[in-house]
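Researcher: For the record, we're logging two predictions in this thread. I'll number them. Prediction 1 follows.
Model: Prediction 1, sequence and structure:
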Amino acid sequence: MNIVRPESIAVFCLTPGGLRLAKRLKQHLPLTCYCSEKLLEDGFTAFSGTFAATVAQAFATHTALVVIGATGLTVRVIAPLLKDKLTDPAIVVIDEQGQHVISLLSGHVGGANELTRYLAGILGADPVITTATDVNQLAALDTLAVQLDADMHNFRQAVKVVNQMLVSDQRVGLFWDHDSLPESDDRWQTERYDTRGFVAVNSLADLPSDLSALICVSVREKLPDLAIPVFKLVPRRIVAGIGCRRETSFRLLISLLQQQLAKYEFDPLALRAIGSVVLKEDEPALKHLSDCCRVPFEIYSVNELRQHEHLFPSSDFVRQTIGVGSVSQPVAWLMSDGHLVGDTLKQQGVTITLGVSH
């Protein structure tokens, strides 16, 4: 999923009026602003060749593109670049008078709708948003997924089905499976999320009789069978600290990680990151594991781990080899702010400790 980051917004100015608007926006956001050589001023970057060529480059490197110019021109320029609404950057268009800010592409997952509202607020402009859920003042499943940093199986189809239900006045339940998390203070702060249009469900054993479907926010691998369609939205909350011998095989690592996740009944989609000590940053199996699971590989120095190693059993062999008595437990401790889950797996020279991040 593509989520707009303020430091990754490219703005394209085609006229002097566009430059003036961009200067106003730069007072509020860290923007990369492009313009032609003829309009070039301090703080702006010249187009790399043509406007279209520069847009094509930015399309691959920025999470959001803002064009201060005509909608039609923008559509023609970006049309050959479009790939997938789950990965394309947000595209927003602003007229050079600053009267309208238009969410053109990737409104939900890409964050264009949210960016449009923000930019319109800065300029005192009219935000133009046409996605059906927003027009009807409803939440959307893909927006909720972004807010939760969550994923789900068959995400694209689920979003299509659920959002269509919402705009068709069907009743879609929303259940927060707090019990799937190990500790009470790990629970989701539900008031932080946009749930307009969803029907709050407090218990799976007592569902409203008129629901057409149910969204279940859970990190649990399996849910009970219910009589209505259930879409499980899985927040990425689980982290794994991993220690291993040099040249450990990828097949062993992924097998043991899956084993540890299954032991505590976590859905594999709940994995947010793996981590290890700095001496393992180039370990092929760990890098492959990170790529395969599509999660970051976080690295910690020996000094960082030493600050917490007294909390855990130590190995003289590990200390002599690495410089600290344990790896997986202090790594998981740091990744989760001390919210560890269960026991550490120790098999065939591999240690894995799970935690819950916030």
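Researcher: Logged. Prediction 2.
Model: Prediction 2, sequence and structure:
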Amino acid sequence: MRAVYATDLSEAIEAAIGTRTCLECLERYGIDAFDLVTVTSPNVTAGMPGSDVSRRTSAALDRQRELLEREGFEVRTHVVRGTPHRRINGLADRVDADLVIVGSRGQSPLEQRLIGGTARNVARTSVRPLLVQRIVERDDDHEVADEHLFERILYATDFSENAERAFEQFDRLRTATKEALLVHVAPPARRAGSETVSDAEDRLAALADDLESRGIGTRTQVRKGVATDEILAAETEFQPTTILLGARGRSPMRRLLLGSVSEDVTARATSNVLIVPPTRVR
């Protein structure tokens, strides 16, 4: 399986690429090859062969390629010019990637923990599973927020077709995931014990039985309230390494936009987020 890994050649991304535990998790997911891509300014001079910028870009990209090759991955590198999210998603389509990985450093309270512009735009337009990997700054150094990427999964579902497609990711995660929390958020008006809530509990229980049969310890929760707020509250309680979501949920919008819940969770969560788009977009 092949992943497109977007890099801005920064120390932050290099810290993620150089974290062996993260790479082992991706290997257990099934990734054995990377297309490492950096998108440079459309400025003609910056991209001209032989320029200082070109040499520095190539040297930094080669250094990151060597980090991945050292761990046994097949790696191809790409230096492209243009709008980052378009070029990243375009490459993912061209190489038929199974996963796109984008680093996010938007953890500052002053930034309200919003994901960076490139990560947000890739998330909004990707037609392939996307891993938004959190990178934090500690003691003037960068490190991944959760190096065991898929060890603890919080899966949020509205039981839509897109959520069901996201659940299929457990086919790839089964050897990497030890624990899972399955969450459904019911509107505040629905009382505990109502037929709708009971139905949600039964459906979550069926999903839990499926995961338990694969050796994944699983719990379920039906929460009441605003979906984004309750998913993030569940994140605080469960402390997952990754939140798994289907993009767009029940939204009737036909444009290539994340549904509001998926976008808000991706922007505000402190965990990694794995977003799975609907099949029809591809």
